[in-house]
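Translate sequence into structure tokens.
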Amino acid sequence: MELALISYIAIISLILCILMYVDKERAIKKEWRISEKTLLILGFFGGAIGGVLGMYLFRHKTKHNAFAFGFPIMAAIQIYIIVQFIKNFA
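Result follows.
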């Protein structure tokens, strides 16, 4: 069960990190962008760790309060949930 949760978080985080990269590249090229709503929803549903990584690896959305504060808070909550889940079911 723990493996499934960790795998889910890892996959969603990877997807969000990649989307942050794609959005940054599109912003530079002045192309169609990925909506902030989409990025935040993926962060909320388990991808916040990847969102934080993508934000700082690609220097993207770091000045937007919803991302600069939202992703780290969501990531901390998600890490806490994972740790508690593993402690209770291990």
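Note: The two ends are 9 Å apart (CA to CA).
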